[in-house]
């Protein structure tokens, strides 16, 4: 088997007294499309935020692309990573947020070119050209000069995807990227993500409440509850013949709420 | 050093005057803030005008000019004010003008649905203000009122310039007696800080008391 | 206004005290640490008023410049601060006969490094700065001798002026002899000395100032003052403060005002 | 007492000299307040409590005590420890420090109002801290601050008369000096009031404009 | 037929250039339960708000309980009513709002007693006793001392109903009183309203999107579109065999959205 691109090993995380992740371990293979599902508060977002270094961890180790994420090797042991190391590691990872988090004072194009110019020293013209290609791909090229405030939610999210892609990360993290959207706008964003999954060999981690999308999209599904992995497997298994009681109960509730799986 | 205790007493007398000015000034300021703030929201254009004129004039000119005017010029028009009266009046009117904008802003930020509920319950305009709007707006006003009261406290130092023997003035006197500058000034700096801390603590307490239940958790 | 004026003394008697303005500039006027008002000028006024049947004086401390406007605004019944009798002041208020006289002096750094002996010398020097008390006689002397406005530093009170001389903010500090000696005594600073009398300045004599229209009160005051001067009581009051009782008798209000007042 | 037009006309040039100093002190004081406020805001955010707590206390202290007394302190007490400031410099520092405590609040609020998602997006875009401040946070935080800061400049303008206490010959001091000299308070004080009123009417207009101009970000 | 308790005659209402109600006329019989249905923006809320005097009218007349609402008779003609007249008329009408509009600074009990004490001069104890009876009826008696912030949406709305009833109005207006509630809380409010409809002979006007409730509750249904009444009749007719095309289309859409009628 290939060397995993993400190796999570015994990670724990608490907010104050609340233990959100408990001795969590799993790997992700390069190019794998992984869906994280589970009830609210089960820790899905927290994992993605830890991978993006937006939250620290309390215990365990994480390797990304063969290198420690939160630590540096030093005289045989591990010491906490410094900002320089984190900066280097972040270059491998991109993230798309539930609430888009576009920069409101910059145009669509500037949102996409900002990071390449600043962090990769890309030339202004080069950056623009690649940005336009990406905007083309997400169907937002003709809005390049608009400000985020002038866009619909779905359009914003497509720009946010282009922005994350502009750094050419090896791993993309998507945290409920459609849940803040009006129902009629969800599909346009999912379409972009479908194309992305088909056309690139990027590793993708997806947190979602859209079970049917997770089903189509993922190679493998992890079902979380209470900060632990309760069940994992290919989507066909998880969604049609879940083994664990908690998974069954969760899916039942989803179906009762009117979702197709 | 024995003498110093006498001087300290002088400063404490001044502190009393400063407190007196602060309390009386705050009372005047509160009254003016509500008159001015409600006046700006009046249905009658002339009341609105009057209130706006008051607010803009007192916020527009400096407290110093107002103080010197009250003290030196008003008597020429047959309104002789004692230094204390002039100080209280100038400080109260000045800070009241700032407070009026706070009152207006707070009243306007009470959602219009509250007004509609009052109409549906057939309350009169005054009842609505008194029982529904002001109690809610007051909580919003408090923090800024606290800041205004501290501004007023600091403003009292200025009345030493019209020879009212407040704390700053007494520090000057002590300085003239002793030739010692650092000690009296450091003493009053400390006293002012104690006063302003007392004000902000009191306001925070009041705020907590009034806000209780407004954002309470569901039980 | 004369009808009311006749009642001035009656009014003072009735209220039992007179409101006087003082400056807190020893030995002319002084507030003790227990709040008691003393100094040569208030003591004289107190003694005279007692004989007139007015029990005591109540003093407010004021800038010199604010005293005459204060009388006009009826803030005080009289000024007993050692206000020098001068023609332009005679236009604004009524003076008693002179009581306290003093010559002008300079406080300077030890050895008078700039060698200034007159206001004209200050005007002639390149950069000498002279400190004067706001609204005092010295301000007019300095400006009258041609010292430019920027070099006439108006100090807010006597003590501040001395501090500014010590700190080198001003080069010369102009005040009457007795004031300077009192300040120097208190400061006990070997780096300072007094130069007196200032060349080209007359001996000034002060009197008590009354509002215009209080002529009757002023005249009664003068009568008692004259009695006290001849009985020697006057000398007993002023000489302990360092003033010469004789100097006050050598001149008159009429001379100092340059006409009747 | 009646208004004397001749006297009023006579003193206007002197008062205008004072206006120049007043404006000078206001502008310099504002510049200090803007910079100092920024430092206060940043230091108070510091994670090191040995920095944030003392700075917080200092800010509360300066805010809670009168500027007048602080000016006395700067002018008359600092020379005892060998720091001799000219009147205008002491005044500008006093104004700047005092108002710096206000502007630091404005900066703090402005920075806090930038949604936390912006910090996170910047991190996800792998920007460094300085890049995040310059390209993401400050461009969003500053525009809404501008009207508030301008408001404090106007307040400062109205407090410059305090500098009279440390012998700065600004407008109010010129007026007092004139009043002392001529024994007339009516005209100088009224004219000063009129000057202040004129300037603040202009500044109200300016402030309204700034509020409209910077109301919307992006 | 009984004299109608509400007579709306040729009423029109515009917001700026937008004409929201167009020459609208209909009557309501005393004790009648009337449901107003129709698409969003058709003017349903506006009618209720006009009856509650929260909006003025541009033309036409309204009689409530035999008296002009927005006018006073004067020398044979009609002149606009003054505040005193409106105050008198409002006593006949109560309204419950979509967003409850409870007074957040007062307890549940105080919310209910405030208006009786202030507008009807009820004694404090009497007002409390009647308020408790009403709170009993809406099932909120044990929360009498809670503040609104401590209540769920359904509980808030029940208190709001009690508050409106406390003034014993002849007419009650309900504007989408359940549409801001979580689905599981809707029923508790509807139950209160059902009881109210059965147990009292108050006249009730109900704006709602809950078709099945309108069906059960109403004696008569008005279907609005574009500020006009398109169709009216007993609920059985309107909901099962609507005559107008627009009504049919509206109901079809409602059913498609998953509602039972
Ligand atoms: N910054 C924080 N401080 C305190 N608690 C937090 C914080 N962030 C998350 N939590 C808590 O951690 C737990 C896990 O949160 P997380 O956001 O990872 O859940 P999730 O699985 O993404 O849920 P959802 O489906 O609702 O987004 C929750 O109980 C949440 O309240
Ligand atoms: N205060 C107002 N100013 C301007 N337009 C308004 C105002 N209130 C209502 N409108 C407009 O009047 C029309 C009718 O509004 P109304 O609220 O009566 O509709 P509705 O039938 O209650 O709709 P909904 O079912 O959405 O509540 C709408 O087009 C609305 O936008
Ligand atoms: Mg989440
Ligand atoms: Mg509606």
What's the structural blueprint in terms of helices and strands?
The complex is a heteropentamer, with 2 copies of chain A (about 260 residues), 1 copy of chain B (about 220 residues), 1 copy of chain C (about 260 residues) and 1 copy of chain D (about 220 residues).
Chain A: E1 6-15, E2 18-28, E3 33-37, H1 44-51, E4 59-64, E5 67-68, E6 71-74, E7 77-80, H2 83-90, E8 93-96, H3 108-119, H4 124-137, H5 153-165, E9 171-175, H6 183-199, E10 203-207, H7 211-217, E11 220-225, E12 228-233, H8 235-240, H9 245-256
Parallel strand pairs in A: 3-10, 3-11, 8-9, 9-10
Antiparallel strand pairs in A: 1-2, 1-4, 4-5, 6-7, 11-12
Helix pairs in contact in A: 3-4, 3-5, 4-5, 5-6
Chain C: H1 2-6, H2 8-15, E1 17-22, E2 30-31, E3 37-38, H3 40-52, E4 56-61, H4 64-72, E5 78-84, H5 87-92, E6 94-95, E7 100-102, E8 104-109, H6 119-124, E9 130-133, H7 137-144, E10 152-155, H8 158-166, E11 172-176, H9 177-187, E12 192-195, E13 204-210, H10 215-231, H11 233-238, H12 245-249, H13 253-257
Parallel strand pairs in C: 1-4, 1-5, 9-10, 9-11
Antiparallel strand pairs in C: 2-3, 5-13, 6-13, 7-13, 8-11, 8-12
Chain D: H1 5-45, H2 49-64, H3 67-77, H4 87-112, H5 116-124, H6 129-159, H7 171-182, H8 186-215
Helix pairs in contact in D: 1-2, 1-4, 1-6, 1-7, 1-8, 2-4, 3-4, 4-6, 6-8, 7-8
The structure holds adenosine-5'-triphosphate (2 copies) and magnesium ion (2 copies).
Word description of this protein:
The complex is a heteropentamer, with two copies of chain A (261 residues), one copy of chain B (219 residues), one copy of chain C (261 residues) and one copy of chain D (218 residues). Chain A is built from nine helices and twelve strands. Chain A has 261 residues and is an alpha/beta fold. In chain A, a hairpin with a 2-residue loop joins strand 11 and strand 12. Chain B is mainly α and 219 residues long. Chain B has helices at 2-40, 45-60, 63-73, 83-108, 112-120, 125-156, 167-178, 182-211. Chain B is flat. The model of chain B has no long low-confidence stretch (mean pLDDT 88). Chain C has 261 residues and is of the alpha/beta class. In chain C, a hairpin with a 5-residue loop joins strand 2 (30-31) and strand 3. Chain D has a single domain (5-217), classed as MetI-like fold (Orthogonal Bundle), CATH 1.10.3720. Chain B binds chain E through residues 113-114, 116-117, 119-124, 127, 131-132, 135-136, 139, 213-219, and chain E through 52-54, 87, 90-91, 93-95, 97, 99, 101-105, 114-115, 118-119, 146-147, 149-152, 163-164, 167.
